[in-house]
Amino acid sequence: MRDEPTPASTSVRRWTAADLRELAWLFLRLGVTAFGGPAAHIAMMQDEVVRRRRWLSEERFLDLLGATNLIPGPNSTEMAIHIGYERARGPGLAVAGICFIVPAMLITGALGWAYVRFGTLPTATWLLYGIKPVMIAVVVRAIGALAPRAARTTPLRLLGATAAVLAWLGVNELAVLLGAGAASAALARLGGGPGAPSARPPAQDSRPPAPDGERAGGRAVALAPWLPGFAAAGAVTLPGLFWVFFKTGAVLFGSGYVLLAFLRADLVERLGWMTEAQLVDAIAVGQVTPGPVFTTATFVGYVLAGPAGALVATLGIFLPAFFFVAVSGPLVPRLRRSPVAGAVLDGVNVASLALMLVVTAQLGRASLIDLPTALLAAASALLLFRFKINTTWLIALGGALGWAIHRAGLAG
Prior knowledge:
By secondary structure, the protein is mainly α. It has one domain (17-196, 218-412). Helix content is 71%, strand content 0%. The protein has helices spanning 17-33, 38-52, 58-69, 75-118, 125-150, 154-168, 173-190, 238-251, 256-270, 276-288, 296-328, 332-337, 339-367, 371-387, 391-407. Helix 5 packs antiparallel against helix 13 (339-367). The N and C termini lie far apart (44 Å).
């Protein structure tokens, strides 16, 4: 099923059971194959829902990406939830988000069982050795497709370049996003800037109008792990475990390293439920398995309280994402219709793309470590740009080549 985006002038498209089945299959597959972190996951989603299925226009995808970056929680999971809502409203929101999370939850849960049983983690360096170069090519292709829409004017291109430099220098990503949005709005008020009404037509909306009274959720960065809690040092309880991860999912944004800092403050220092070594192992599992990094919670929950702990921790950390998207998602088309708010969204969009570019450069430095990985990245880019091969097959090929290269002793 490959529907064209519904023009704004036509009747509202109504979702069907077939839409839910297609959403479920797509995000289950992505949950199994989406390695490489949020930037790579979002690039794979762009390939599937914009280029292949044409569910969304590039402009709408960019707007959702910008909105995702302004709310707390796991970005790629929230992007999946946004796409589900665009496709099939409330049921689609639940189906897409759950199906993206469940494969990673099952994989990390199984690794949690192995860790408890054997006291160590299995090694799979060969898998990431082959997959990471492929993911770099996937992200670069997505950035190349989105950049002309995001940086369509000279002021927006300058904003994007500035955002990239600031992100590279280590400026907080939320400050970069909000600064770009404010600068874009200021230029729009002066007239002829990035957000001028003539600069871009409203993005096409294929959803029914959102009900009145909905409000966007704000980002509560300053609260961090110092929110009052119901967890206490000593014995691990399921309510306490849920609260620790619910609180984290409600206020955290950033990389796995930020997640490490949040969990360390609670689980190691305040509660004493884990050791430093156990927490580092948990973060490593989230980084090397497919799907959202936040399924680190599943591993931690299993180690601390078995299968019930794994389910409670997973529910706690992801539940806020569903809430934030459900509340903020319907406001995106309304923001686009306002000249000033649309200009803010334009600035956030181009800054979001700049952040993806910086993350990709950092990933490249860590992944292209020898001649085989460089050649694999180049070959992947050729297959993507010239032959438009499906990213899922390309990732599988990368994993197989990683195994073959390690077996042959050619890895650097």
